[in-house]
Amino acid sequence: MSPLSLYIHIPWCIKKCPYCDFNSHAIKADTPEAAYINALLGDLAKDIRLYGITRPITSVFVGGGTPSLFAPESIDRLLHGIGQQLELQEGLEITMEANPGTFESQKFAEFRALGISRLSIGIQSFNELVLKRLGRVHSAGEAIRAAEIAHQAGFENFNIDLMFGLPGATSKSNRLDIETAIGLKPKHISYYQLTLEPNTYFHKFPPKLPNDEANFVTQQNARTLLADYGYQQYEVSAYSQLGFQCAHNLNYWRFGDYLGIGAGAHGKITQALPHAIVRTVKPKSPEHYLSSTHKQDGATAISGNDLPLEFVMNHLRLKRGFTLAAYQSATGLTPDTLEPMLSACLAQGLIIYQEHHYACTAQGWNFLDSILEKFLS
User: Fold this and answer.
1) What domains can you pick out in the chain, each with its CATH number?
2) Which pTM was predicted?
3) Percent residues over pLDDT 70 in the chain
């Protein structure tokens, strides 16, 4: 069986950003923190029973929202409760997302002592004008201070999230963002392009954004600069120092299994190959989630026709790509189910075959959507 990860969604944040399409809600004074922890643990117990989970957990990711808004005592109860229900692989990576506006030295030292081994800090930019236009609640100074606190709290491993293609950004500010992030010495940097997602304020009222050519140059310049400082790109938007790739996200991109608990959380569980690979989803509304964790949630089997696309859309995000052996192991399908799409991509120079791996060429990565269209069932 493939590795099994655990994703935990805590949906509250200080303020909803205009570009954000994640399931997040502004926190209130009466947010039911204790009840939500109870619901998460009940949700996990139900999934373990429903899917007959016996495998150990190889990574945990606490996302949101801004999970670091919860008290260390709540996170302690959550992690302890998980450990009582599931075997946790020794030395597993436990990541928590954090917003720079929530950083307190004592609080994050406590998170580290509880076993949180990795932080993902949502900075997005170090430019004050850009941060304001993004609706972020932190300043550039607070972002820098957050990284300093992470070091002081003992987090050897943390990620900085940055974005490009932002309203008000310039080539100079983009470069300064990367240089500032490198100077803070994180082990991992994520660099995403802003996209205007449906059901967001920015989608309804689009800001003026850099054009595609400018974004391409920005990404290429960032890739070069990061490589100069030892940050190797291993995924479309992910760069890390040697040995510090995000284990949890790697499991996603390798089409691994993961339990998803919390309001709106998604999961993927392999029960039998190839026709019993299911995707799960929990109620999106926190209120609905808190009142319905005793009920069976949505689970849909991935059809055999969709499996080739589901597999390649994840694996081709990785610079290393995939082997046919990995495809067969993860899907239960034979290699011929990737034809003639794979051959067409090879002929067009979108994919290369090297050392038993199929991976995107530089051109293929820039036109990944064109590759995936070929695999639509």
Assistant:
1) 4-251 (3.20.20.70), 303-377 (1.10.10.10)
2) 0.96
3) 98
